Amino acid sequence: MLHESEDRAQALAVAGWTRRFIADPDRCAEAEEVYRSLGLEVHLESLVPETAYPECADCHFAACMTYRVIYTRLKAAGDEGI
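Structure (tokenized):
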């Protein structure tokens, strides 16, 4: 199973980030472009592998290397040029 680090997710939430969804690289790039066009900051977070069965370890590791959790938040005042 793939998931994000709960401690990291909590820290991002405290910093004002909103979790959107998990995406493969292509969807991630599309979503990042859309969110930025809406004036939002975008942060991409890696996943953490969690395997229930040893034979699943390779697939989970491979997915964790490419899939990302997408977070957004409103830009802070004065960050319009970023």
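The chain has three helices and five strands. The beta strands are 2-3, 18-23, 40-46, 48-49, 68-74.
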